[in-house]
């Protein structure tokens, strides 16, 4: 009976540890911690209350999976000092791609080769998603 209880406790402990790793965890370090508070992680998204230019605190978030270097607070917006663009076939038909907060913004060609400015919130994508261009619009796959 004790061994059955020990196995049950071990399974619950493993499930809780696995869920905390997927849906939370310790926020990454960075200079943002000097002017932001209440930092939390949900998946790959860092959310914090950060000081704006006028001194007010606002809630801001950043998709940190592809961040490199320092994470800073720039007038109330969390920003990576560098970012690796996420993988995907969109790179062949999109240009001027950049990270904006937790989003990827690009100019992509539609089926008629016309340029369309499009944005995708990367927080809406699964961890292993690849980004594609579907008729001028970025999508997770």
Please explain how this structure is put together.
By secondary structure, this protein is an alpha+beta fold. The chain folds into 2 domains: 23-83, Cyanovirin-N (HIV-inactivating Protein, Cyanovirin-n); 89-140, Cyanovirin-N (HIV-inactivating Protein, Cyanovirin-n). It is 16% helix and 46% strand. It contains 1 helix and 10 strands; from the N terminus they run αββββββββββ. Strands 1-2-3 form a 3-stranded antiparallel β-sheet, with no helix packed on it. Strands 6-7-8 form a 3-stranded antiparallel β-sheet, with no helix packed on it. β9 (131-134) and β10 (137-140) form a beta hairpin. The longest helix has 22 residues, at 2-23. The chain is elongated and about 45 Å long. Mean pLDDT is 83; it is low at 1-23.
Helicity level, as a percent range?
A: 10-25%
CATH superfamily name of the largest domain? Cyanovirin-N
**For the record, what CATH class of the largest domain applies?**
Mainly Beta
* Structural class estimated from helices and strands: alpha+beta
Helix and strand run: HEEEEEEEEEE
**Beta-strand proportion:** over 45%
Q: Overall pLDDT, averaged?
A: 83
Q: Which CATH architecture of the largest domain? A: Roll
Give the number of domains.
2
Question: In the CATH scheme, what's the topology name of the largest domain?
Answer: HIV-inactivating Protein, Cyanovirin-n
Low-confidence runs (pLDDT<50, min 5 residues)?
1-23
